[in-house]
Each structure stands twice: as C-alpha cells, then as structure tokens.
C-alpha cells in the first residue's frame, strides 16, 4: 500500500521539478492574467456605470468573483494536460507505462497536481503586487461553512477538470489530431464554467440546465460558494451532483483507456 | 529579394495551404467550428451584459456589436493569414527547426510569418463581417463608399498592429527558451480592442489607449462606420501601425541574434 502511494509521490516530486523548469511560462501566464482582471474592471465597470446592481450583485462582488476565478484557474484548472497525454500516445511514449506497475491515470494526476502547486504559487506573486489596488473591491461572505465546503468542492473541481482533459487526451487513440476538439471544448467550458460571465446572469432556464452539466463544476461552483453567489442548500445539492459527475467522468476515462488500448499499436522500444 | 519575388513566394505558400486544407477536410471543419464558437462566446458576453444594462460607456447594444464584430474581423484575418505560421515560430526556435527559415532566400520574418494560410480563419472573417453588417443594419447606418473604403483600410492597419503584437510575443521565444503557450498573451492584449474608448479611465487609459494600441485597433474603424471619417482616429491608427510594425521588426531582428540554431 505504502509502496503504491510512494511511486505516485515520486511522480509528484518529479513533476514538481519539471514544472519549475517551466516557471517562466507560468510566471508570464500569471502576469498576463492580470490583464484579464483589468479587462474585468473596465468592461464591468462601464456596465455598472448604468446600473448599481447587475443580477443582484454589486461591482465589488463581481470583481471578487472574477478574481476568485482567476486564482482557481491556476490552482485547479487543466492547462495543457490533454495535449501532453495526446503527445505521449502519438509518440509512443505511453508504451513504457504499459510495461510498468503504474496506473497511467494516477501518474498523470500526480503530475497535474504538482504543476498546479507551481502555477498556483506563481499566480499569487503578480496578484500580491496588485493587491493594494484591488483589496478595496474584494468582498467576501462571512459564513464559515463556505470555506469548509469549498475544500471538497475545489478538490472535486480539480478532479473533474483533469479527468475531462484526460479523456480528451485519450481521444488520440482514435484521432491523430485532437487540438481542434480541445479548443472547441474550451469555448464551451469557458462559457458554461462561468469564466466569461457569472452563470447566474444567464436567463433562469439556461442557468438551471447548466447546473446539471459537468462544466458548471469546473469553475463556477467553487467560485460561487466562496464569493457568496449560492446558498447552503444549493451548495449541498451541488456537491452531490459534482461527486456524481466526477464518478461518471472517471468511469468514462476508464472506458476510453481500455477501449483505446485495444486500438493502440506499440512499435519499437 | 524583390517585392514581386516575395509575392510569388506568398502565392506558392497560399497554394500549398489550400491543397493541404483540401487533404484534411475534417480538420478544416473542426477548426472552422472552433473559431465560430469563440466568436459566439464574445457575442454571448455582450448579449448577457445588455440583458442587465442599456449602455456600456455610452455605447448601445448594436454599437457594441459593431465594435466587437470589427475586432473579431481583424482577429480572424490575423488567424487566417499569420497565426499558424507565427504559432509554430516559438516551437521552431526551441527545437532548432527555425534553421529552415534562415536558409531561405528572403527575410526570416516574412518567411516565418507567411508559410501557412488558415482557410478556416479566413472563412470566419466573412462571418465577422456579417456581424458588422447586421449591426450596421440594426443601427440604420448608410455609410458612403468612401467610409467603407476607409473602414477597410483601417481594418488592414489594425491587422498590422495585431500582427506586430503577435510577432513581439512570439519573439520572446528567442530569449525565454523554456516558455510555452506564450501566444496566449497576445489574446489577452487583443481582447481590449473589443472595448469602447470611453470605458478607459485613469491609468488604464494611459496603458491601453496611449501606450498599447489595443483600443484604437477596434475603435478607429468602428467609429468610421458609426460617425463617418474622423481624421484624428484614422491618423492615430495608421501611425500606431507604422510604429508597432517597426518595433516588431526591430525586436525580431534582435531576437535572431540570440538564436543559437539546432546545435544549441
């Protein structure tokens, strides 16, 4: 059991070192993500100039929401894991994992976790720089349950995000090029995950439907808990649905893996 | 190399790209959908905001649609003509495959920028143009032929600015060898071209209106359709295009000196 855990701990540590090699990549990305916040300030600031409250929330609550989304993106979001998995399948690098006593999903999840530790830490640096300008607009709810329930919501959110990326990566068993699918899906995920606008601003019917889709749990759900956009009952119900989606996606990932391997041809060493 | 020779090289690359697209029709369909979806995301954002407010910085919904459509048109043209080639530039610099462009008989920036043409981007530029026409129709605009010609000219100037920003972003690869996905930085800056000038105040106005040309790129052509010829806006955009293209060429050339070939 301990040996089992140990090999993924080593994968995590190797992933940590590998991510640190790309620290400039994350740092540049983190720096440019601040532009995203500036964009939020300008666009939503102009929208709020004509209306004190939009969808029942004031400007500061909206800024807090988008700041939270930005930070969560670096801590739990999938970056290019789908592409990395796709490359390993396409180049035959995956063959080495088929011969070793290691679960490819868990190995990749360990690498993903280490990368998020590095990217998450690096986004805090530029954010700390703008905090003196930003902190007047950050308003957090005071209920303690939000911060308690946000923990499982965030962990499940990371799992949902990674598993979706993993499934897209596995599509390489069937398709030579998956980038098109990935970016197509990114557009859908950005909207239905609440990264473009808070989902509660959509018409009520659409918002209701969105709650039954996995994208809702990628980003909007944990951000909505932390920023006070949903109540306790909706959070408890959401956690159940998030867990269900995590289980469904894990099942799908396993199915794609076993079916994909049947199509896979390992050539060379 | 003479201008005519450059044109011949570009036409040969375009022909190669068309043949390649016809070979991978499924890929063409998927990427067309990708671009279409991302345009829909931008339009959706505007639609959702205007469900809750009547004006953004004094711009009505269809005025904003015209601005967003114009910004999308410029970006689609960039995607169609230059994106794939410049996207690969970063990777080629890292792997040493950039040697291939240095061995060609033309300026490496031209060679590296025009190798591939993306028909999906060009196809979607018609859809972006359709959004502009639809918004103009809803606003009851009747621009003169001169206004339309000026609009087209300013769109080309805006394309030059976007191209320069992308070249500057990708040129970072010469210095930051371990940087990947830095092209995303271009998209971040480009998003500002979808916002009206009046929304920018204080330091944001200095940074994104005066220092970076992001805002003028979308606003100058859109205002030409909305309010007719405005010399100040036209001069501003054309001047910005000339300045930023010069800067991009300068930085690219400096970056080339850092390039240490495949043997590094």
Protein described:
The complex is a heterodimer of chains A (269) and B (264). The relative contact order of chain A is 0.14. Chain A has one domain (2-263). Chain A is mainly alpha-helical. In chain A, helix 2 (23-49) crosses helix 6 (104-134). Chain A has helices at residues 2-21, 23-49, 59-76, 81-90, 95-98, 104-134, 144-170, 179-192, 204-210, 220-227, 232-263. With 264 residues, chain B is an all-alpha fold. Chain B has one domain. Chain B has 11 helices and no strands. Chain B has helices at 3-23, 25-50, 61-95, 99-102, 108-113, 119-138, 145-171, 184-190, 202-211, 214-227, 231-258. In chain B, helix 2 (25-50) crosses helix 3 (61-95). The longest helix of chain B is centred in the N-terminal third of the chain and has 35 residues, at 61-95. Chain B starts with a helix and ends in a 6-residue tail after the last helix. The A-B interface holds A 21-22, 24-25, 28-29, 32-33, 35-36, 38-39, 41-43, 45-51, 54-55, 79-80, 177, 180-181, 183-184, 187-188, 190-191, 196-197, 201-203 and B 27, 30-31, 33-34, 37-38, 40-41, 44-45, 48-49, 51-57, 172, 176, 178-182, 184-185, 188-189, 191-192, 195-196, 198-200, 204, 207-208.
Outline the secondary-structure elements:
The complex is a heterodimer of chains A (269) and B (264).
Chain A: H1 2-21, H2 23-49, H3 59-76, H4 81-90, H5 95-98, H6 104-134, H7 144-170, H8 179-192, H9 204-210, H10 220-227, H11 232-263
Helix pairs in contact in A: 1-6, 2-3, 2-6, 3-6, 3-10, 4-7, 7-10, 7-11
Chain B: H1 3-23, H2 25-50, H3 61-95, H4 99-102, H5 108-113, H6 119-138, H7 145-171, H8 184-190, H9 202-211, H10 214-227, H11 231-258
Helix pairs in contact in B: 2-3, 2-6, 3-6, 3-7, 3-10, 7-8, 7-10, 7-11, 10-11
What's the β-strand tally of chain B? 0
Could you say which structural class the secondary elements and strand pairing of chain A correspond to? mainly alpha
Write down the Rg of chain A. Answer: 20 Å
Helical residues, percent of chain B: over 70%
Whole-number radius of gyration of chain B?
A: 19 Å
What is the beta-strand fraction of chain B? under 5%
What is the total number of structural domains of chain B?
A: 1
């Amino acid at each position: 059991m301990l040996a089992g855990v140990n090999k993924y701990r080593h994968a995590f540590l190797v992933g940590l070192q590998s991510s640190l090699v790309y620290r400039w990549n994350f740092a540049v990305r983190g720096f440019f993500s601040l532009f995203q916040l500036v964009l939020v300030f300008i666009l939503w600031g102009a929208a709020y100039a004509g209306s004190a409250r939009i969808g029942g929330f004031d400007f500061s609550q909206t800024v807090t929401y988008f700041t939270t989304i930005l930070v969560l993106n670096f801590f739990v979001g999938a970056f290019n894991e789908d592409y990395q998995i796709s490359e390993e399948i396409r180049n035959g690098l995956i063959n080495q994992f088929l011969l070793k006593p290691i679960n490819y999903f868990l190995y990749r999840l360990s690498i993903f976790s280490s990368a998020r530790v590095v990217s998450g830490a690096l986004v805090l640096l530029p954010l700390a720089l703008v905090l003196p300008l930003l902190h007047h607009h950050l308003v957090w709810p005071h209920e303690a349950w939000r911060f308690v329930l946000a923990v499982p919501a965030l962990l499940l959110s990371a799992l949902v995000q990674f598993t979706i990326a993993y499934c897209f990566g596995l599509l390489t068993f069937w398709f030579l090029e998956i980038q098109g699918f990935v970016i197509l899906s990114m557009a859908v995920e950005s909207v239905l995950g609440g990264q473009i606008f808070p989902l509660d601003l959509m018409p009520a019917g659409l918002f209701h439907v969105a709650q039954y889709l996995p994208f809702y749990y990628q980003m909007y759900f944990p951000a909505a808990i932390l920023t006070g956009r949903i109540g306790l009952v909706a959070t408890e119900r959401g956690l159940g649905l998030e867990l269900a989606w995590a289980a469904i996606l894990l099942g799908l990932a396993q199915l794609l893996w076993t079916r994909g391997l049947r199509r896979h041809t390992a050539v060379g060493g | 190399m003479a201008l005519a020779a450059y044109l011949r090289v570009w036409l040969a690359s375009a022909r190669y790209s068309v043949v390649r697209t016809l070979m991978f029709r499924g890929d063409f369909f998927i990427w067309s959908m990708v671009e279409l979806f991302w345009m829909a995301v931008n339009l959706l954002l505007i639609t959702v905001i205007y469900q809750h407010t009547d004006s953004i910085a004094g711009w009505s919904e269809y005025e904003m649609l015209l601005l967003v459509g114009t910004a999308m048109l410029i970006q689609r043209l960039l995607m169609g003509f230059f994106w794939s080639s410049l996207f690969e530039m970063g990777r080629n610099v890292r792997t040493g495959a950039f040697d291939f462009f240095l061995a060609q008989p033309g300026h490496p920036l031209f060679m590296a920028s025009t190798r591939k043409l993306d028909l999906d981007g060009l196809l979607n530029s018609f859809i972006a143009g359709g959004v502009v026409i639809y918004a103009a129709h809803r606003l009851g605009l009747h621009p003169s032929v001169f206004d339309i010609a000026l609009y087209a000219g300013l769109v080309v100037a805006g394309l030059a600015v976007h191209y320069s920003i992308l070249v500057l972003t990708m040129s970072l690869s010469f210095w930051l060898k371990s940087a990947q996905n830095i092209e995303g930085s271009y998209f971040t800056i480009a998003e500002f071209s979808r916002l009206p000038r009046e929304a920018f105040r204080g330091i944001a106005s200095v940074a994104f209106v005066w220092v970076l040309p992001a805002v003028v790129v979308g606003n100058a052509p859109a205002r030409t359709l909305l309010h007719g010829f405005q010399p100040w806006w036209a001069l501003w955009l054309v001047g910005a295009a000339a300045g930023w293209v010069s800067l991009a060429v300068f930085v690219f050339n400096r970056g080339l000196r850092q390039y240490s070939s495949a043997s590094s």
